[in-house]
Structures are given as C-alpha cells and as structure tokens.
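User: tokens in, sequence out, please.
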C-alpha cells in the first residue's frame, strides 16, 4: 500500500513550516523589547541545565484540542486569538514549526496515538483502549510509580479508555487514572432542571453518538472525594465556568494541589464546537484554550511541587480543513486528511529547554512519548517515534 504522505504533501508541509517561521520572525522583530528568536534546523540540543535527577522531573502535556488552523492562530490576523501563547509562553520555550500527524484524524484515536507513540488504527468512535502501551504505563512500570502519580483529564466519555492499553505485561495495572469532568457533571445534574446542553455536549463531531462508558468506573462520590470537594461545590463551580475546558482546568488544578502527579495529561476540546458550524464559537474556543494554557503554566510556576521541575508540552492533535480543500468545509471539519490538516506545531517549556528557539526540521506526533521518556527516565520501547534531541 502506497504511503498516503506524498511528496507533494511534504512540500506543502515544508511551506507551512516556513510560513510559521517567517510569521514568528516578523512578530518578534516588531517587539523590540523581546530577544529575537534563534532559528534552528539542526538536532543539537541543550544539556539538561537544571541538573535535576529524573525522579524529580515532572511533565504536563496539553493538547490544544479540537484542531485549529494557522489562519486563526499563526497569521497576522489570527495572532489576536492567541496573545498569551505568542507573547508570554513562546518566548520562554522551544517552538517546533513542522509537526506531522500521519494517522487517523479523529480526536480519540489521534490522542491515543500521541499517548502511545504509535499511530493507532482503531475506529475513532469505538470504546476500546489503545493497542500499544501508553506513556502512563511506561512511566509507572519502569519508574515504579504509584497510581496517583499519573492522570488524564479528558473532555468526553469517548476518552474513557485512554489511560491504559490491553497489551500483555502492561495494561490497566500500570495505567493512568482518567477523569471525565463532563461525565461526573452529567451524573450530578441528573434529575435537575435547566438547559445545560452545550456544556454537557459529549462529541461535537457526531452529536447523536453516545459511547458506553467502560473501564475506570469511578462514582461521583469517589470523584468528589478524590478532589476533596463536595458534589454541590463541583456543580456550582462547573455551572459558573460554563465551559468544558474551564471545568477541565479546574479539575486539573485540584489534582495538582492534592496529588502533585509527576505526569499529567490535559485534553482541551472546546474549539471542536466548530463542527456545529459556528465560527464565533470556534474562535471563542481558541481564545479560551490560549488563556488556559497560560494559566496552566502559571500554576506550574506557582506550585512548589512543580516549579523549576516541570516540562510543559502544548500541541494540537491535528489541524482542520483549509477553505480550498475539495470535500472539506473549511474550519468546520477535519475530514480531507490534506497536508494542511496534518501539519501542526508544538511548544515545549521547562528546565533545560531553550528559550526563544524555533526548530524547523520535520518531526512527528509520535516523537512526544520517547521525548517524555528521555526526560523522565523511562524507556518507551514500543513507541515508533524518536526523542527530540533539542529538548534533552
């Protein structure tokens, strides 16, 4: 079977990467108070400047979830939607302009590929675990870490199996605990009046789909006990926030303060409301994600267990269709699988990671897990990506 990632697609991806670099160059050149980004195409990386032992290092991964296009983020017109990413976070880290996703462009299966370092091939809407060991299993098994040291905060019931694979010698015994805030909110609101449709929407791409929740069956009482709050407090907070991603951040922050997990994965997803065809809500989701990424980084810097020890990785799971894609609907979907929907970016911040650095060479989503392994001290032996030496 021929590789669908054609030579022409590779040229388009390279062009996208170059346009991102030039945009960042113009952006930083206009901001005289900020140092100019150094641009690198090499693989030479910094030493781990902090001198931390691997057992002290921590990592938080945030998927800039739901998929976004350069038009709304990395262009002169789009930059207004991500001021914190461009003005506050990017100058502190290393930005990869050319990150390729060659897998299936569905949110659950794409996130599963990110967590395993292998392009997963199962049905995006199936309630199945990843087919390869996850980063959480490598981390907990190799480093002998306890259950409360690896967590996933995910947007919908479709992610309920993301915490562990069913691979022999790995599996649930070494997986992450998965928190689905909207699932617990739905339980807590059962029998109440009020229209919370938008907040409780499980999947914007297929509104009628409602997967059965299997695995990780934690009750609402157990959930609120884990976070040390009452169900009433949780509901009040959720309805005040009025956003699934705001709720995910609230839960993640409670987890960080209560358990200080060394490995935390947060999937943000509000911008996927684009599937409903409302451009303004899609933009609102991008702007909210931008702000929450800033808040997550500030939380990392303010919490004693995390400050000076923690790497933050921010990346989209994939893009969205371009306006000119045949068979696509522009911002609304990600169905064509064209180069523009597959070529994304990543920002990494933390101890030992160069500030003000842009890397142009092509890398893949599959490289995230091996890179986490190299930084935290575990062996992602079945992953197919390679450690990003710029971050080691």
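Assistant: Sequence out:
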């Amino acid at each position: 079977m021929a590789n669908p990632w054609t030579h022409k697609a590779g040229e388009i991806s390279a062009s996208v990467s170059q346009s991102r670099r030039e945009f960042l160059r113009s952006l930083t050149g206009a901001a005289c108070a900020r140092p100019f980004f150094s641009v690198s195409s090499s693989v030479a990386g910094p030493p781990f400047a902090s001198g931390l032992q691997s057992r002290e290092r921590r990592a938080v991964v945030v998927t800039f979830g739901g998929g976004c296009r350069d038009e709304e983020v990395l262009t002169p017109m789009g930059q207004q939607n991500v001021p914190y990413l461009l003005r506050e976070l990017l100058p502190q880290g290393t930005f990869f302009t050319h990150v390729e996703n060659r897998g299936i462009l569905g949110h659950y299966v794409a996130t599963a590929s990110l967590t395993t370092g292998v392009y997963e091939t199962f049905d995006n809407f199936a309630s199945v675990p990843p087919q390869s060991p996850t980063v959480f299993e490598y981390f907990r098994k190799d480093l002998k870490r306890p259950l409360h040291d690896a967590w996933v905060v995910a947007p919908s019931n479709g992610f309920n199996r993301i915490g562990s694979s069913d691979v022999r010698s790995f599996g649930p015994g070494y997986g992450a605990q998965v928190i689905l805030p909207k699932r617990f909110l739905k339980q807590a609101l059962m029998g109440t009046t009020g229209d919370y449709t938008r907040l409780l929407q499980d999947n914007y791409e297929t509104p009628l789909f409602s997967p059965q929740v299997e695995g990780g069956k934690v009750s609402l009482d157990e959930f609120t006990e884990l976070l040390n709050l009452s169900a009433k407090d949780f509901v009040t907070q959720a309805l005040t926030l009025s956003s699934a991603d705001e709720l995910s951040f609230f839960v993640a922050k409670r987890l960080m303060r209560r358990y200080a997990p060394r490995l935390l994965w947060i999937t943000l997803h509000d911008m996927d409301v684009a599937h409903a065809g409302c451009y303004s809500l899609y933009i609102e989701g991008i702007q909210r994600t931008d702000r929450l990424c800033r808040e997550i980084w500030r939380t990392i810097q303010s919490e004693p267990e995390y400050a000076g020890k923690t790497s933050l990785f921010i990346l989209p799971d994939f893009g969205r269709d371009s306006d000119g894609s045949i068979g696509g609907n522009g911002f609304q979907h990600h169905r064509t699988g064209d180069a523009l929907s597959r070529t994304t970016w990543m920002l990494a911040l933390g101890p030992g990671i160069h500030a003000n650095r842009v890397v142009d060479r092509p890398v893949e989503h599959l490289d995230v897990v091996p890179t986490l392994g190299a930084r935290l001290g575990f062996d992602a032996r079945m992953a197919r990506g390679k450690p990003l030496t710029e971050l080691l």
